[in-house]
């Protein structure tokens, strides 16, 4: 089943998501429609409880919606079985988490190729070499996570996310565990992935300086999209968040 989302890498149509029951019911997402174009780097921001993490989880198929549809590469994922979602995420979606989520017993190379190993797919060595060279990991491939700095571990996570050439990479506070200098390096790598490789990136962040690396900022409040910023900078993001009452 497909819907007409040809211009979009990821699209949501009128999605809602609630938590709790009766008196404790809370609308985390309230009739949200949004589309993300291929090759765009988009930051999702909003006050605490605005629904930004819930939106990302629903777009990535990590959580289900109560109503509406989510599509990745024009394929509707709403209502998919867990097995089919797992297969789709392996081939179409990359993830970068704040906590890196590397396997401690595997070296950097094995961590990077792990999604392909799990899928029984062959590594495109030329693409692998290009990614690790771009990320400055060529001389770190035999190192295990505990032998790498925080920035190097996050670069491994970025490489793992890019290796499958996914339709979209979701980044959940990717610099939250990094110092400011290392965080800036990782954000520039994400920006260059969109700019130079055409990679679609959707990042949830609370940091205006991180959001300034994106092409666009989507603003959420009370489970609804309430605005956006094109070509954001830290000052414009701070002003927008202040208007939302963060």
TrEMBL record:
Domain of life: Bacteria
Entry keyword Protease: no
Residues in ABC transporter domain copies: 10-241
Pfam families the UniProt entry points to: ABC_tran
GO terms assigned for molecular function: ATP binding
Protein source organism: Yaniella flava
CDD domains per UniProt: ABC_MJ0796_LolCDE_FtsE
Cross-referenced InterPro entries: AAA+_ATPase, ABC_transporter-like_ATP-bd, ABC_transporter-like_CS, ABC_transpr_LolD-like, MacB-like_ATP-bd, P-loop_NTPase
Protein name: ABC transporter ATP-binding protein
Species classification: Bacteria, Bacillati, Actinomycetota, Actinomycetes, Micrococcales
Keywords, comma-separated and alphabetical: ATP-binding, Nucleotide-binding, Transport
PANTHER family: ABC TRANSPORTER RELATED, IMPORT ATP-BINDING PROTEIN
